[in-house]
Amino acid sequence: MSAGSVAVVVAEEIEVPSWDLYELSIPCTVFGKPQPDLADPWYDLRLCGTGERPREGRAGPGLTLRAAYGLDGLDGADTVIVPSVPDSCVEEGRPLPPALIAALRRAHAAGARMVSLCTGAFALAEAGLLDGRRATAHWMHTAQLAERYPKVRVDDSVLYVDDGDVLTSAGLTAGLDLCLHLVRRDLGAHVANQLARRMVVPAHRPGGQAQFVDLSVPAADDESLVPALEWAGAHLDRPLTVEDLARRAAMSPRTFYRRLRAATGMTPMQWLLNRRLSLAQSLLESTGLPIARIGELSGLGTANNLRYHFLKQVGVPPGEYRRAFPGGHRTGSGPTGTGPADARPEAPGRAAGSPGRTGA
User: Fold this and answer.
1) Nearest to 125 by CA among 82, 156, 86, 92
2) In the chain, what is the straight-line distance between the N-terminal and C-terminal CA atoms, in Å?
3) Within-domain flag for 214
4) Fewest CB within 10 angstroms: 35, 74, 178, 213, which?
5) Does the pTM exceed 0.90?
6) Residue 311: inside a domain, yes or no?
């Protein structure tokens, strides 16, 4: 496994919007700060300017950027990243610099791995590098990308697309997901997970996950619900009903339903399903347990039931999700310190939120 060199394209024009700095800062943070205790040598980062002359008279908050390298810095790079392109190139159809397009084509022909974050996909598409490929961008711009470049198979529903030597991501935080995915490919899951921990971000979100999915479990603002929800979290392997939770909270089922909905925005069955999926994610990341056993421990029932919900909510099957964490699998009969203490198999279809069951 090798880190290699990363060349990041920097748009050099006056009044670069401040929000474009986010995508630019992502590869600088991931690949630019040495991590000698994780991998030595780390990546060799180059910031490569497009060489455009400043455009005077642009309105709005922004700044002028100057990079240490020109576009010739893309030559010989193992990975080339285009974080974004100017808004005028997306919204107004302003041509991208011909020198940039030529440099991207040259780098790809030389064997570089080509990457775009957010609207950077427009540059790869203009260079013809996305023709016939599946690609993505921020959902606000995918319709324009598809219309302008009909040879690109645009997918507006995913966080990022890994097509081997060409990778594209949606906007903002999805760009961070893709950069950590590159580290995982280059240096392994352990290094990527440790780097994510230092950045205080989730270790991994699969590229196939939908851009809008949020499997986090909202905390309850109503403190009277906390004991019941904590109890439910410790007994997810059991068939749980609204009546069970309401009894633990010393409320009527109707009152419990109303208060949980007000506190979390979810019905009790939705809350349980998300909690079970979160537990299943944790077990897939950290253990080598069979899929069927994880279905039992999480309360999702059979392996088929787990696959159904995982594919529907996360966007990828559990086996594919697990393969992103090869260093985290442990052998043994069960998890350590996660999930219900007393796991008991349940009949298919008994889990809250399972197919065919009517939610509360």
Assistant:
1) 82
2) 50
3) no
4) 213
5) no
6) yes
Cα–chain center distance at 187: 18
- Among 52, 66, 132, smallest CA distance to 94 is for 52
Q: Do the Cβ atoms of 191 and 145 come closer than 8 Å? A: no
Q: Are 115 and 245 members of one domain?
A: no
Q: Are residues 231 and 186 in the same domain?
A: no
Percent of the chain past pLDDT 70, that is, above it, reads: 78
| C-alpha distances in Å from residue 306, one per residue of 5, 176, 317, 319, 322 | 40, 28, 9, 11, 13
CB 249 within 8 A of CB 227: yes
Higher pLDDT, 101 or 278: 101
- Give tens-digit pLDDT for 310-358: 888 777 788 887 876 655 444 443 433 344 433 333 333 333 333 333 2
Asked whether residue 259 is assigned to any structural domain, the reply reads yes
- Do 133 and 250 share a domain, yes or no? no
Confidence of residue 120 (pLDDT cuts 50, 70, 90): very high
CATH number, domain of 62, equals 3.40.50.880
CB 293 within 8 A of CB 285: no
Q: What is the DSSP letter of 174?
A: H
Total domains present in the chain:
2
Count CB atoms within 10 A of the CB of residue 86: 23
Tokens of 107: 């780098």
Q: What is the pLDDT of residues 218-270, one digit of tens each?
A: 555 567 888 899 899 899 999 999 999 999 999 999 999 999 888 877 899 98
Report whether 137 contacts 171 (CB < 8 A): yes
Domain that holds residue 154: 5-199
Question: CA-to-CA distance for 161 and 113, rounded, in angstroms?
Answer: 13
Q: What is the pLDDT of residue 147?
A: 95
CA distance 80 to 291: 38
- One domain for residues 152 and 272: no
pLDDT in tens, 125-134: 999 999 999 9
The pLDDT value recorded for residue 325 is 61
242: CATH: 1.10.10.60
Question: What SS3 state is found at 14?
Answer: coil
